[in-house]
Amino acid sequence: MALSIGIVGLPNVGKSTLFNALTKAQNAQAANFPFCTIEPNKATVPVPDARLAPLEKIARPQRVIQATVDFIDIAGLVRGASKGEGLGNQFLANIRECAAIVEVVRCFEDDNITHVDGGVDPLRDIETIETELLLADIQTLERRIERASRMAKGSKEMAALTADLEKLLVHLNSGKPASGFAWPDNELMLQTRRELGLLTDKKIIYCANVDENGLGSPNKHLESVRQYAAAKNAETVVICARLEEELQGLSESEQLEMLASYGADEDGLSQIIHTGYRTLGLLSYFTVGEKEVRAWTIENGWKAPQAAGVIHTDFERGFIRAEVIGYNDFIKCGSEAACRSAGLLRVEGKEYVVQDGDIVHFLFNV
């Protein structure tokens, strides 16, 4: 499973510049005017994981495959986007399949870069973005209720679903996000929740775009975003999109040196991906062999058969057992054979909960 993250923000907040830097490819045109991104941009980038290099050194595989993240950058939102203002809400549909949304807000002053609302105010920007997401959800839900009510005439199940959806609509109309709704614990409603993909039901990561000075010394705009995010139990990532662009083309050591000079120890890509993993409760396990060393992304709490299913559905369907070695044990012993001899290779069954960094070999039969 690839982590999918949608990037949203008002025009001219550095969103497309950030996208260019994060994906290490100039796929999104960056310009100093609104709506320069008029088509959704999507890029798949590898997940940085320092554990892969030691595994590669030991196993000497033919190839190493990292887990991946899909970034989707949509055109800048403005007030009234859900009603067709600016470029309208057509772009919001592009992030309905995303697991999380990164809200990019500008937290620096620069008279040379215009702001669509005339001045820098990140909390106002956040309110605009989240209002448009909420209004788009209301429209989506109203259409679904209309369809469900037609089907409810001869079905008690659909009548109950319609009633639940109407309660959700009341919740949204009160200005509250779908994530705060007390979703009924029945299969039809849970399935409908997945199908709706409501934007306000997604995890939010707030991304404060600062200038070079803001990386080392927080400003009032950044502090206001941090306080807002903390109140919503969300995380804030601080990046300088301009610096991220400058990092491109430099060696890893040169990048680290430049970041350190600004008081940072991690680039924006790594920050957002690692924050996304924490926010969504994701982890990685590894398969290690002569042909390949590979990282696989799963949800925290998944049992061995579910984890096997991300490799192939047959692995889950015909699961027999899993042979598991902890990452640190593998690195310390230097091989699977050495781990086996030391009694550090465990045989686990269907109830085993896969841990972050586990090295796993699945046995199955179909």
Describe the structure.
With 366 residues, the chain is an alpha/beta fold. The protein has helices at 15-23, 52-59, 122-151, 156-173, 187-196, 212-216, 220-231, 241-247, 252-261, 268-280, 304-309, 313-317, 327-333, 336-341; strands at residues 3-8, 41-46, 63-65, 68-73, 100-106, 203-209, 235-239, 282-288, 292-299, 319-325, 346-348, 359-364. Strands 2-4-1-5-6-7 form a six-stranded mixed β-sheet, with helices on both faces. α1 (15-23) packs parallel to α8 (241-247) and α3 (122-151) runs antiparallel to α4 (156-173). 36% of the residues are buried.
In a nutshell, what does this entry contain?
The chain has 14 helices and 12 strands.
Which terms summarize this structure?
6-stranded mixed sheet; alpha/beta; 366 residues; 3-stranded mixed sheet; 40% helix; flat; 19% strand
Question: Which helices and strands occur, and which strands form pairs?
Answer:
Layout: E1 3-8, H1 15-23, E2 41-46, H2 52-59, E3 63-65, E4 68-73, E5 100-106, H3 122-151, H4 156-173, H5 187-196, E6 203-209, H6 212-216, H7 220-231, E7 235-239, H8 241-247, H9 252-261, H10 268-280, E8 282-288, E9 292-299, H11 304-309, H12 313-317, E10 319-325, H13 327-333, H14 336-341, E11 346-348, E12 359-364
Parallel strand pairs: 1-4, 1-5, 3-9, 5-6, 6-7
Antiparallel strand pairs: 2-4, 8-9, 10-11, 10-12
